[in-house]
Amino acid sequence: MRTSELIISEPIPFYKAYIDVLGDVELLEILETQLQNFPNFIESVPENKLGHAYEPEKWTIAQVLLHIIDSERVFQYRSLRFSRGDKTPLPGFEQDLYAPNSRAETRSKQSIIEEYKAVRQSTITLYKSFDAETLKKEGIASNLPWNAAILGFVICGHQKHHRNILRERYLL
Length: 172
Fold this sequence. Notes:
mainly alpha, 2 strands
């Protein structure tokens, strides 16, 4: 499935921005491309900058990287639930609690890369198991309508969005 094939419900404009940042891409291709490219990006971050925040009260680079991983896990779980026909509405998650509780300051760059690769490979494996009908299966999360395809593209766009912020605000 390509981003240009998505039908996005009106209530999710915030998340649509994550899809729009990708351009017209094929889902499995972008998942796999990011699996190859994002670890290289993380590797390019100097180890001594992992604890850097561009302003007081902003997350550090390591916290942003772990936020990307944590969010992918949450979105992947939602995709699994919807793909299996589970219509139970899912709550949101409080990302601002995750970052300080991630223990990012104790993590090495290599451990973050390894975790990212494991999570992304799991996402790819899940999405490879989906056919066109499964990608359209819907559910409610954070009081918004979603389907498995939209969640997959949001995973990719969310990562790209935060990589762009890291480049523009943290790694000047």
